[in-house]
Design goal:
By secondary structure, the chain is of the alpha/beta class. It folds into two domains: about 180 residues, Rossmann fold, CATH 3.40.50.1400; about 130 residues, Rossmann fold. About 50% of the residues lie in helices and about 15% in strands. Strands 2-1-3-4 form a four-stranded parallel beta sheet, sandwiched between helices. The chain has a four-stranded parallel beta sheet with strand order 6-5-7-8, with helices on both faces. Helix 9 packs parallel to helix 10. The longest helix is centred in the first third of the chain and has 27 residues.
């Protein structure tokens, strides 16, 4: 800016931003915090694609009257009371901080690392504005979903693009493709299984992925196929025989048929068949959250035990494990080429 006139707006030195995005979290487990969060989440056309005239009266009139109470009670069970936030917020912040350290080791102060949430706070708009104000003229955007789905990766990208619409001077942006079959990601998953089981593999390892309506698969969403491939590659990395890892889907919502088998039913069936020692892993989640800490360790565990199951081991998500941070760094490294 040495040749600019004195009254020219100040422009910070150009940097490359690294922005990771997670699903989101309510600000609290009280009724109104839960209602605001659920309203934003369940109003997303990528999540619920019914016509607004049909869906919104049901959402506003019935679902958002009752569901904030039940969802809030579930969040209360896992809430990080010390920090006043959900585990997803705590873990995502830890991931961003660990990634920031590694990114600065690799690229110095030429990069800026931050995180945002698709729903709730910190919002994509808020964080993008902050990064641009700090001088980020190029941004690598990494939604924390190993497998691509319209209701996860695509809606995160949508929100980024909407935020960019408010900028007079838009930065260059690269969105990251899914990393469900990257060797380093599969190795990190396999290492987490080995650590958690301490050399004692169960009769069955259930790989439970977040569900979606079966209709989305027939409409072209690749999520189901990518989940199946992740499970197959995990089995190969562990050196296990066919039949030990089962792929299932959880978090069914609404009247439609979703991807099957449903985890909550499948674990009960396993127990009835005599598989009383199982472990469950969630390869679609980069961070432990309500679906893993409460649903798997609560509803799904209870389904297994009530059907006669004896030993239920939940294998945590990769979270801020150093192996996972290296995967994220490698993914970003592949996408930041030529910018730093």
């Amino acid at each position: 800016m040495e040749h600019a006139p004195a009254d020219h707006p100040k422009i910070p030195q150009g940097k490359t931003g690294i922005l990771i995005a997670n699903l989101g979290t309510p600000d609290g487990y009280d009724y109104w915090s839960m209602r605001r969060y659920l309203n934003e989440f369940l109003s997303d056309k990528r999540v619920i694609d019914y016509p607004s005239w049909k869906w919104q009266p049901l959402l506003q009139g019935i679902i958002l009257t009752k569901r904030p109470f039940s969802s809030g009670a579930n969040y209360k069970l896992i809430w990080n009371e010390e920090k006043g936030e959900s585990p997803l917020m705590t873990i995502t912040r830890d991931q961003a901080e660990a990634l920031r350290v590694r990114a600065h080791e690799e690229w110095g102060d030429r990069v800026m690392v931050d995180f945002c949430m698709r729903y709730g706070n910190p919002s994509t708009q808020e964080v993008l504005d902050r990064m641009i104000e700090a001088g980020c003229r190029r941004i690598v955007f990494l939604p924390l979903y190993p497998q691509y789905a319209g209701a996860t990766s695509a809606t995160a990208n949508d929100q980024l693009f909407r935020a960019l619409m408010t900028q007079k001077w838009q930065p260059a942006v690269r969105t990251v493709e899914p990393y469900f079959d990257r060797p380093d990601y599969i190795e990190a998953l396999a290492a987490s299984v080995t650590r958690a089981l301490d050399g004692n593999p169960p009769a069955k390892l259930v790989a439970s992925y977040h569900g979606m309506p079966k209709r989305y698969l027939t409409e072209g969403d690749p999520y189901h196929c990518q989940c199946q491939k992740t499970s197959r590659l995990l089995k190969e990395a562990l050196g296990w025989d066919d039949g030990i890892i089962d792929t299932t889907f959880q978090s069914v919502f609404g009247p439609e048929e979703w991807l099957r088998p449903y985890t909550v039913e499948h674990v009960a069936e396993l127990a009835k068949q005599g598989h009383t020692d199982i472990a469950v892993i969630s390869p679609a989640f980069a961070s432990d959250c309500i679906e893993t800490l409460e649903e798997i360790n609560g509803e799904i565990r209870e389904s297994f035990e009530h059907a006669g199951g004896k030993r239920f081991t939940y294998i945590p998500c990769l979270n801020a494990d150093p192996d996972h941070i290296e995967v994220m760094l490698n993914v970003i490294g592949d996408n930041i080429t030529g910018w730093v």
